[in-house]
Amino acid sequence: MLPALPYQDWSETKDTLHLFLQMIGKIRLKAHPKLNHWWHVTLYPHVRGLTTGRIPYGTSGFEILYDMLDHTVTISRNDGERASFSTPGLTVAEFYQALFSRLEQLGISVKIVAVPYDNKSKMPFPDDTAPRPYDKQAVSDFWRALCSISSVFETYRSGFVGKQTPVQLYWHSFDLVVTRYSGRAHPLESGTQSDREAYSHEVISIGFWPGDDSFPEGAFYGYAYPEPEGMSQVLLQPADAFWAEKNGGALAILKYEDARTAADPAAAILSFLNSVYDGAAVKADWPVEDLAHQHS
Hints:
Layout: H1 7-31, E1 44-46, E2 49-51, E3 55-57, E4 60-67, E5 72-77, E6 82-86, H2 92-105, H3 136-157, E7 168-170, E8 175-185, H4 193-198, E9 201-209, E10 219-225, E11 242-246, E12 249-255, H5 256-260, H6 265-283, H7 288-291
Antiparallel strand pairs: 1-2, 2-4, 3-4, 4-5, 5-6, 7-8, 8-9, 9-10, 10-12, 11-12
């Protein structure tokens, strides 16, 4: 069952958690070998929270786990050495100090740009000493939601044999994503370097994000790049889903609360994801049959 996630009740805690995760994500960005479409920057669902996965380091490696049930961060090395700290009550500056002092304790040296990325906070991490709300129950509820959603996303992934991402969380935008590729190149000619690397090929992307000040509630979404003609005419499922406009393009939306209160939330989410992909793939003339997994 999906927990309630009323945005107004945990928005300040969400902002705190977002900044904490940005620091961890920036470490993976700097330390992990670069992968296509920025896949080397993401965090992954773990049975207790979010993890960097194994990051190569010299001839060994390390992992950072943000435990969203016990509210600790643990850095583990391949040789079994580890260091942890508790997160509730920390300021951003204290979290930064605790994180990098534990890395140093384990002999791991990583330099990051210590400023939030694409975030309403512009304060450098070491200078952000203001008290930060941290509602442990809200963080755990968010994790339980991510855990359930990740399972649905994995089911969605199982129907596709083409190139696609793992279920992964982009820490800059704070959304959980799965992106599928047609296999055809379609380089983006504008935007930043990161935009051009992310959108070098045709994609249909789905995801979940917990809301922000401009859209104050959690929601599932879907879109296609390049956007095919008539995209917003695709029939979405379930009936509560709708098309919105974002940055001049069509964005499919299913509000988290509508999915949560459905008779079968998992089925409602999966029907939304499949309706976005099925409709967009036909509109964009993808080789749908070739990319479908024929389960025996």
